[in-house]
Design a protein that fits this description.
Its cofactor is Zn(2+). It catalyses: 2 5-aminolevulinate = porphobilinogen + 2 H2O + H(+). Belongs to the ALAD family. By secondary structure, the chain is an alpha/beta fold. Helices cover 41% and strands 17% of the residues. It contains 12 helices and 12 strands. The strands form 2 sheets. Strands 1, 2, 3, 4, 5, 8, 9, 10, 11 and 12 form a 10-stranded mixed sheet that branches. The protein has a two-stranded antiparallel sheet with strand order 6-7. Strand 2 and strand 3 form a beta hairpin. It is globular and about 85 Å long.
Length: 327
């Protein structure tokens, strides 16, 4: 008599309904945050060449974009600013009438139900392109903290629902928390870029934001891609200083870090599916080498499986459409 296996794993893969029934992780539109780039002017919809489908938007066209985001059910946006002028101390970052501040106010007025998160950093606003002040030719940590905290406060005053410091200065979460609490914004959450690596995956973003360093690199403040234990230390410090959500950036090459942070801290974990990851998929799809829809959904589901609760991605609008079609 032939011997047949009694344990057949394929029984639970036999048809789509059964596969859905036992599926462990589910990607939903509520997981998504869509990054947007606000700039000055009128009627501006300037394409980012290395990021098909991504644009620098003046406030009028930004609101058109936000309307689509809301209609798709995406719960929130992450706002970046493209200033008209830059200087050594990044004045545009904390200017109460700066581009992010204006964008936040406009978005919240038009779409009060939308979650508006702001990127808090100086790099887009400094003439040297670094995330802090330059003293004696180097990025100075402590003198940068007050300006970073002031930037977060100006975003809160403009109506932001959450601030997300991305500068990687030591102590910046504590400085922001103290500044916000001192001004009455005790309920304002902080989503910290806790494990942010000195990655080459950021290239297309730096084109979009015009934020490439004019000298040197960011390896003295962003993390070495070879390090994992350091991410634990960085994240622990952010949580102790008052972070409410922690982030891993980039996402795709650092899923081990996502898993470690989730297991170590059991805190809400965000991932940033960064510009280089987006651009690679777009380029390969354009060449017909991959199925864009399938690979994006597989990639984002992988983020969820690794432990991510929040996915910041330029694919958000497409994913929202695809998920709606699948229903």
């Amino acid at each position: 008599m032939p011997c047949f296996p009694t344990l057949r794993h394929r029984r639970l893969r036999w048809n789509e309904k059964v596969r859905q029934l036992v599926r462990e992780h589910h990607l939903g539109v509520d997981d998504l945050i869509y990054p947007v780039f606000a700039t000055y002017g009128q009627g501006i919809r300037r394409p980012v060449a290395s990021m098909p489908g991504v644009f620098n938007l003046s406030l009028d066209t930004l609101l058109e974009e936000i309307k689509e985001v809301v209609q798709l059910g995406i719960p929130g946006v992450l706002v970046f600013g493209i200033p008209e002028e830059k200087d050594e101390v990044g004045t545009g970052a904390y200017d109460e009438k700066g581009i992010v501040q204006q964008a936040v106010t406009a978005i919240k007025k038009a779409f009060p139900e939308l979650l508006v998160i702001t990127d808090v950093c100086l790099c887009e606003y400094t003439s040297h392109g670094h995330c802090g002040l330059i003293i004696d030719g180097a990025v100075d940590n402590d003198s940068s903290l007050e300006l970073i905290a002031q930037t977060a406060l100006s975003h809160a005053r403009a109506g932001a629902d959450m601030v997300a410091p991305s500068d990687m200065m030591d102590g910046r979460v504590a400085a922001i928390r103290q500044k916000l609490d001192g001004e009455g914004f005790t309920q304002m959450p902080i989503m910290a870029y806790s494990a942010k690596y000195a990655s080459v995956y950021y290239g297309p973003f730096r084109e979009a934001a015009g934020s490439a360093p004019q000298f040197g690199d960011r390896k003295t403040y962003q993390m070495d891609p070879a390090n994992g234990d350091e991410a634990i230390r960085e994240t622990r410090a952010d949580i102790e200083e008052g972070a409410d959500i922690v982030m891993v950036k980039p996402a795709l090459a650092y899923l081990d870090i996502v898993r470690r942070l989730k297991e170590e801290f059991d805190y809400p974990v965000a991932v940033y599916n960064v510009s280089g990851e987006y651009a690679m998929i777009k380029a390969a799809a354009e060449m017909g080498w991959i199925d864009e829809r399938k690979i994006v959904l597989e990639t984002l589901t992988g983020f969820k499986r690794a432990g991510a609760d929040i996915i910041i991605t330029y694919h958000a609008k497409d994913v929202a459409r695809w998920l709606r079609e699948d229903k």
